[in-house]
Design brief:
single chain, 5-stranded mixed β-sheet, Arylsulfatase, C-terminal domain, alpha/beta, 27% helix, 20% strand
């Protein structure tokens, strides 16, 4: 009788298709007002689901923001407690997920879901092995040329010896989509599935295939209001790899070409996601599938004179987060503050799956359904030992440090009014009338850093003026 009850419960749960992109910033979807950016499939998911427009990454202690950010998504736990480094005292290399925490896919697997992984897994192989029962075209690197993609077939032992890695020449976005579509078409089990499909697009090299490569002419691309030839001060990581992708100072024409190429990668990705959606519809399971779309972080591409994601401006820390499927209202966009550690709890809530006790994120489900207006009063982000951020949704404080390791960086703060200055062009930190706001946010930052176990919590707010 108990076994029949479990089978009935599983049968009532939706399938899950969890899609995660690399470098896709929060506003870069046509439905969000990017008129020149063509994303009809993502637009349709926004129209038929709910978009969480104010979701931020927790951050990273390394220039490769991908890996620690994905660890936060997988575990629903702050970076400082989700990962270990190459040893227990080194958190600079935050790719290894602690073996004593359960991941989103692992939790779904334990709840009876068949779990299957496709594409990029920039964390340790052990965490993938305990999470997934199957997989295909697994990419364990941070990036690659999109037409030379080193991949593994799924290995149940979790060993993945280097000699079994092989090269694929199909464009990465199509390669991973092919594997996801094959899984959907071939799936025969009666229990629901959790399909995790992780793309390396729109990460550079931004070399979209035709006709997408020619879809955007740089002469038609409008520079954003916060374009700058160079950043006004040392952020602490000014010569990281990403920042070398364009010349100094930034030239308008070169940045327009980067933006055109970035848009082309996103439009190509959008079309491939459309193939996944079509496969669900052809299988007759679209309406009983929860589709989640997000990214590991955003990207500057010329904004604030920067090119990469190694900063805490909105273009780099705010990500898309779309839900579409059973239990999700249609055509809704919510502005509630959220962190990427809240994604796992939200997926679990929508699937009626119990969370592990160690999970620290909060479910956005009651926000989606309108029961409450928010789950957080503030949200913060970190970058290495040189930047910290806190925002209450209107006001945003960024705290910069000089690194004791590299001696790079600047001891200062910035204050932005996001409601009136969403592009973060006017630093109000030197305006005496905002001293009270700075003091309040500085106190919030101290509390947030202490709560999440930040390694810099003893240096949280000094100085509180720029």
């Amino acid at each position: 009788m108990k076994e029949e009850s479990i089978k009935k419960q599983l049968a009532e749960r939706p399938n899950v298709v969890f899609l995660i992109a690399d470098d896709h910033r929060g506003e870069a979807i046509g439905a969000f007002g990017s008129e020149r950016l063509q994303t009809p499939v993502l637009d349709s998911l926004v129209a038929s689901g709910t978009a969480c427009r104010n979701t931020h990454i927790f951050g990273a202690l390394t220039g490769a923001v991908c890996a620690p950010s994905r660890a936060c998504v997988h575990t629903g736990i702050p970076l400082f407690r989700a990962t270990i480094g190459k040893d227990m005292t080194n958190r600079e290399h935050s790719s290894v997920i602690r073996s004593d925490v359960r991941l989103m896919a692992q939790t779904m697997r334990e709840a009876g879901y068949y779990t299957h992984a496709v594409g990029k897994w920039h964390n340790d192989k052990g965490s993938l092995t305990r999470s997934f029962e199957g997989g295909a075209k697994l990419h364990f690197h941070g990036m690659s040329d999109h037409t030379q993609v080193p991949v593994f077939d799924y290995d149940a032992t979790g060993k993945y010896p280097k000699e079994l890695e092989y090269m694929e020449n199909t464009f990465s976005t199509e390669l991973f989509t092919n594997a996801a579509v094959d899984f959907i078409e071939e799936y025969q089990e009666k229990r629901p599935f959790f399909l995790y499909a992780a793309y390396t697009a729109p990460h550079d090299p931004r070399t979209a295939p035709e006709p997408y490569a020619s879809m955007y002419n740089k002469s038609d691309v409008k520079l954003p209001p916060n374009f700058m030839p160079q950043h006004p001060f040392d952020t602490g990581d000014m010569v990281v790899r990403d920042e070398k992708l364009a010349g100094w100072p930034r030239e308008e024409d070169e940045i327009r070409q980067h933006m055109a190429d970035y848009y082309a990668m996103i439009s190509h990705l959008d079309a491939q996601i459309g193939r996944v959606v079509d496969a669900l519809k052809e299988k007759g399971i679209y309406d009983n599938t929860l589709i989640v779309y997000t990214a590991d972080h955003g990207l500057a591409v010329g904004q604030h004179g920067l090119m990469g994601k190694q900063n805490l401006y909105e273009h780099s820390v705010r990500i898309p987060l779309l839900f579409r499927g059973p239990g999700v209202p249609e055509g809704k966009q919510v502005r509630a503050l959220a962190s990427n550690i809240d994604i796992f709890p939200t997926v679990a809530g929508l699937c009626d799956v119990d969370l592990p006790a160690e999970t620290e994120g909060s479910s956005l489900q009651p926000v989606l359904t309108g029961e409450i207006t928010g789950i957080r009063s503030v949200v913060g982000s970190v970058y290495r030992d040189v930047q910290r951020m806190i925002t209450d949704g209107q006001w945003k404080l960024i705290r910069y440090y000089r690194s004791p390791i590299t001696n790079a960086g600047t001891e200062r703060i910035q204050l932005f009014d996001l409601c009136n200055d969403p592009w973060e062009t006017q630093d109000l930190s030197e305006d005496p009338s905002h001293a009270g706001t700075i003091e309040r946010l500085a106190s919030e930052l101290v509390t947030w850093m202490q709560d999440c176990g930040d390694i810099l919590q003893d240096k949280a707010v000094l100085p509180v003026t720029s």
